[in-house]
DNA sequence: TCAACTATCACTTTTGAAAAGT
DNA sequence: AACTTTTCAAAAGTGATAGTTG
């Protein structure tokens, strides 16, 4: 509904003093986003959140649920989520901790999940919590369902975008703001790694099998494994809870199953017997414990950048990036970095108020700093000491993919869901440069990803170019955004 | 041999249409 | 007849497990 021009009146509301960053701070910056259920996220984060990715797509658990405030009640907004790499590495689970296993693989096509209720008035978004329950993750790079594509054994974190726009078409002209929450970072896996069931160095699968065959010998501490948390909190996994309601489970399989079953029960009953939750962050990530110093979680309240609380970040930056999501016990208000779109150099990823309360911090910028040449060094702590990745890389969140032709440099632009200008390059009346992505046109850009059926505007909301492109690349026209969202919005494919 | 991936299982919750009630 | 509530089967979402792949 409102273009950038229309937004101006909305800027009349002064932001909190703490948010008055940037010379030209958009007063829209008073939008606040809080993560719901931060305690749960924190619990997962302490262990090292793992998200299963499957070919057909798997939901996240915990799933992202946020609350918004500070929106203009009558203005329409679009909510989006995408996933950005935490860093440029591939990991492996080894001996009860994560280790770097090499450079990250080239990033798969970047997709952005559009909240099914988008666009909706600010009042709608603010009246209730907003759930991204139906967002699915997949490792199938050829996925046709619009799920977000990730690489297994890589670290990611979700990034939430809110755009004041009447429809997807006007998104490009709108101000959008990005929020991230450090405790939501996770490792994409095809099978849970940190089961803490066995101590076999050979990995979780083997550990489980040995457990089964060796019985009690391996009965250790699944109590703190990621699976226990999932089982305990995910209603769909109730069947795995040791509550006597699952007696029938696998009962007719074989003795091993029974053995495993009892093992599990035992394990569950021994919850908290061994590892204490407090050391999860350190114990699960290689190098973390070597950093010494204060437990990460202690620092959050100090207003450090959000992602410093990530155990991974801590690993990378012993000095300034220790921290944990522990403090996330309180719902976290994360102020965002804003992006005025379009404007090539409008990409000024300042953190609104981050300096004063640590609200947005890196979590807001990182993904927006594809062009190190034009972006202030918002986070001098990067690149991290042990990062073997390309030095010219943008911030970790932007990850290896943004690093050009190197192996890590993926065909993906993590500059955000709204980087749509490329498709317009060279067109009269349309910006001929990227909104804020410095990548060349040969670099792929994000795709829209949407939930199934929807109230989304149909493809005709796209420019003819977009629609045509979808047809061009995929051979048919899509009837709704859900379908259409699988495809690149740009004049070239992401893959 | 090994790590990672995939298909399948048995369980659960969710969903939505049909039936019943008001 | 119209609307609301209840019921129930199908669909979908889970972690565990065994087999496959490279």
UniProtKB/TrEMBL annotation:
Q: Where in the cell is it found?
A: Nucleus
Where is each T-box domain found?
Answer: 35-242
Q: A Pfam family matched by this chain, by name?
A: T-box
- Bias (Basic residues) occurs at 205-222
Give the record's GO biological process terms. cell fate specification; heart morphogenesis; pattern specification process; positive regulation of DNA-templated transcription
Q: Which GO terms describe its cellular component?
A: chromatin; nucleus
> Where on the tree of life does the source sit, at the highest rank?
Eukaryota
Its name, as the record gives it, is T-box protein VegT
What species is this protein from? Liparis tanakae
């Amino acid at each position: 509904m409102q273009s950038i021009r229309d937004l101006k009146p909305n800027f009349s509301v002064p932001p909190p003093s703490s948010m008055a960053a940037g010379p030209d701070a958009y007063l829209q910056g008073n939008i606040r986003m809080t993560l719901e259920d931060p305690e749960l996220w924190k619990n997962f984060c302490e262990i090292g959140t793992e998200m299963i990715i499957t070919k057909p797509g798997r939901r996240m658990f915990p799933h992202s649920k946020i609350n918004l405030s500070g929106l203009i009640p009558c203005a329409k907004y679009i909510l989006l989520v995408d996933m950005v790499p935490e860093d440029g590495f591939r990991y492996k689970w080894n001996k009860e901790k994560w280790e770097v296993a090499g450079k990250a693989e080239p990033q798969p096509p970047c997709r952005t999940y559009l909240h099914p209720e988008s666009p909706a008035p600010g009042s709608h978004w603010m009246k209730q919590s907003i759930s991204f329950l139906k967002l699915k993750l997949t490792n199938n790079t050829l996925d046709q369902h619009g799920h977000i594509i990730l690489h297994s054994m890589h670290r990611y974190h979700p990034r939430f975008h809110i755009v004041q726009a009447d429809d997807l078409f006007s998104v490009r002209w709108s101000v959008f703001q990005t929020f991230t929450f450090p405790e939501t970072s996770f490792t994409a896996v095809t099978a849970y790694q940190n089961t803490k069931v066995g101590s076999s160095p050979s990995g979780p699968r083997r550990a489980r099998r040995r457990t089964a065959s060796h019985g009690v010998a391996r009965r250790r501490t699944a109590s703190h494994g990621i699976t226990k948390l999932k089982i305990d909190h995910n209603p769909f996994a109730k069947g795995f809870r040791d509550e006597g309601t699952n007696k029938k489970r696998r009962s007719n399989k074989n003795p091993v199953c029974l053995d495993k079953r009892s093992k599990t029960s035992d394990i569950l009953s021994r919850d908290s017997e061994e590892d204490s939750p407090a050391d999860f962050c350190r114990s699960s990530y290689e190098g973390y414990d070597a950093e010494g110093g204060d437990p990460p979680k202690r620092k959050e309240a100090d207003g450090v950048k959000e992602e410093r609380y990530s155990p991974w970040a801590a690993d990378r930056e012993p000095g300034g990036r220790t921290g944990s999501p522990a403090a996330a016990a309180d719902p976290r208000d994360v102020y965002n970095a804003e992006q005025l779109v379009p404007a090539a150099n409008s990409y000024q990823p300042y953190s609104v108020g981050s300096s004063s309360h640590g609200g947005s911090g890196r979590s807001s910028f990182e993904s927006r700093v594809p062009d190190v040449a034009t972006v202030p060094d918002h986070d001098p702590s990067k690149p991290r000491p042990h990062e073997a990745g390309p030095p010219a890389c943008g911030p970790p969140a932007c990850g290896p993919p943004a690093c050009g032709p190197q192996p890590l440099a993926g065909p993906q632009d993590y500059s955000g869901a709204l980087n749509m200008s490329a498709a317009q390059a060279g067109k009269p009346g349309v910006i001929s440069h990227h909104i804020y992505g410095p990548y060349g046109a040969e670099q792929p850009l994000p795709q829209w990803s949407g939930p199934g059926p929807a109230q989304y505007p149909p493809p005709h909301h796209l420019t003819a170019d977009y629609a045509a492109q979808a047809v061009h690349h995929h051979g048919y026209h899509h009837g709704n955004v859900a379908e259409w969202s699988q495809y690149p919005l740009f004049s070239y494919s992401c893959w």
